[in-house]
Write a structure and sequence with these properties.
two-stranded antiparallel sheet, 6 helices, 7-stranded mixed β-sheet, 206 residues, single chain, binds glycinamide ribonucleotide, 9 strands, alpha/beta, Rossmann fold
């Protein structure tokens, strides 16, 4: 089975990016990361790309007059790498460009550290911890024009009842993110998803 061409979009430390590369190396994720795209020239994710000989492109907001022009540039880069799946891994911007969203419809995914629709937006783990929730988790979903509102592909519950702080909550959920994301990416190489009632349903390639 041919490997899935993946592009990673990340803004920060890139631990999910690293975890995906680890799972690919371990033979548990049938994908190849072709390019990292970041909006942050200081992102640690760039070091990970360099260490692994992966191309990277910096697309900064300040270089574009309009937000949609930034997304048009990202679309151009994705096309040039023949990207099959766009993986947001700690990419802290909402994608607003119509061209990008339409061209890669149902091929852009995001991981979010809560059980959506609970705790969307920033600091989801802190929101969960502060709410006193005993259980939180992670969600992998398709990206559309809404904030963390696209069709859900996969969710995993994490018991956070023993967590003493928001940081501990984030660390505990992150460990689960690191395994879950690569598993979902692997599935994309083995089939495709259709959307039914705002839910993603997997259809295996025959
Ligand atoms: C992860 O916990 C990811 O779920 C979260 O940012 C962190 C990135 O960590 N994403 C969001 O909150 C998106 N709304 P990483 O850079 O180490 O992968």
């Amino acid at each position: 089975m041919s490997k899935l061409n993946v592009a990673i979009l990340a803004s920060g430390r890139g631990s999910n990016f690293q975890a995906i590369l680890n799972e690919i190396k371990a033979g548990r994720c049938n994908a190849e990361v072709k390019v990292l795209i970041t909006d942050n020239p200081e992102a640690k994710a760039i070091d990970i790309a360099k260490q692994n000989n992966i191309s990277f492109e910096i697309v900064e907001r300040k270089n574009f007059e309009k937000r949609s022009e930034m997304d048009d540039k990202i679309k151009e880069i994705l096309d040039s790498y023949k990207t099959e799946l766009v993986v947001l891994a700690g990419y802290m911007r909402i994608i607003k460009g119509k061209l990008l969203l339409e061209s890669y419809k149902n091929r852009i995914i995001n991981i979010h550290p809560s059980l959506l629709p609970l705790f969307p937006g920033e600091n989801a783990q802190k929101q969960a911890f502060n709410s006193g929730a005993k259980v939180s988790g992670l969600t992998i979903h398709f990206v559309d024009e809404t904030l963390d509102g696209g069709p859900i592909i996969y969710q995993e519950k994490v018991d956070i009842s023993d967590c003493k702080s928001a940081e501990e909550t984030a660390d505990k959920i992150l460990k689960h993110e690191h395994k879950a994301y690569a598993k979902v990416i692997d599935l994309f190489s083995r089939g495709s998803y259709i959307i039914e009632d705002h839910k993603a349903v997997f259809i295996k390639k025959t």
